[in-house]
Amino acid sequence: METVLSTQGLSKQYGSLKAVDKLDLVIPKGSVFGLLGPNGSGKTTTLGMLLDVIQPTAGSYQWFGLPAGKEQRKRIGAILETPVFYPYLTARQNLKIVALIKEVPQTAIHKVLDQVGLAERQHDAFKTYSLGMKQRLSIASALLCNPEVMILDEPTNGLDPQGIAEIRNLIMGIAQQGKTIILASHLLDEVQKVCSDFAVLKKGKLIYTGKVSEVGHQQETTVLVQASQPLTELLNTCPMVVHSQVQPHGKTEVVLHPPYTASDLNKWLFEQNIIASHLEAKTKTLEKQFLELLENA
Questions:
Q1: Which of 9, 32, 152, 223 sits between 20 and 30 A of 261, alpha carbons compared?
Q2: 148 CB-side CA count, 13 A
Q3: Domains of the chain with bracketed CATH
Q4: What's the distance, CA 258 to chain centroid?
């Protein structure tokens, strides 16, 4: 798979503070890559270095397989900080200024306004916009140059549930056009819903990277089982079971060795002439894995 971004030992140090420490990343083309970490983990500093806003202390990075430079930067759209627009100008007027700065034809303005759902409000002053609309306008400004890569730093920060859903759907729509998206966030549920890949940073260090679809894979699976007879003694003879325990509600909690699943357990019980009336797999969430990674790092 083609690589859009790769970093080698990328580091940034402020005095004795290592904001980013020897970061090695590979981001494939067409992915929605989530950069996760608590406050102070180095997410924004990393994005700043990748956009030539912050000078690295050490290490290197390549965009599209080439050393970073002005031409590569033109292929990237980014929102790093809270976007600044003229409050008394309309969305269209603000984007005209952005288009002039980026040397983009103004014919692109209507397309991006329509894409972010602001076409009907394009003639209203920016100061009348909700926080979610302001964020959508900032995404429109980043889309003006039709970039191959979008970098978004905490795009849903401060939004209400409706605003978060709107930005989430917008990001997914942009990704479906084949663009690569690099997204820094602390909202784990949103990352799990939107991203294809993710990396976890802690105090500037990379502690994990992988695919969102593989969260929980190769981990012990927990299943809640209910049947017409006690299962504990029988389950102790099952080779796929790590341990089992009867819960207060009458169900038996069963922990399975990887890669066994609830379906495997159900089949085994049936072979023992036991039909489970309730079988529920407890799936590990990205949040749980994220917290485990931070705790064990």
A1: 32
A2: 14
A3: 3-214 (3.40.50.300), 221-296 (3.30.70.100)
A4: 26
